[in-house]
Amino acid sequence: MLKKNEIFETDIIDYTTEGSGVCKIDGMTVFVPSTAVGDRAEVKILKVAKNYAFGKAERILTPSADRIGSDCTVSEKCGGCLFRHISYEAELRYKQKRVYDSLTRIGGIDPDVIGGIVGSDKSCHYRNKAQLPVSYDREGRVCVGFYAPRSHRVIPLDGCMLQEEIFTQAARVFVDWADKNRIPPYNETAHKGVLRHLYLRYAEKTDQLMVCVVANAKELRREKELVSELCCALPCLKTVVLNVNTEKTNVITGKACRTLYGDGYITDILCGLRFRISPLSFYQVNRDQAEKLYGIAADYASLGSEETLIDLYCGTGTIGLSMARGIKKLIGVEIIPEAIEDAKRNAAENGIRNAEFICGDACVAAEELRRRSIRPDCVILDPPRKGCDRELISTVAEMSPKRVVYVSCDPATLARDLAIFTSHGYSTVKAVPVDMFPRTGHVETVCLLSKLFSQGSTAVEFDLENIPTTKAEAKATYDQIKAYVRETTGLNVSTLYISQVKHKYGIIERENYNLGNGKAPVPTVPPEKEAAIEDALRHFQMI
Ligand code: SAH
Question: pTM for the whole thing?
Answer without folding.
Answer: 0.81
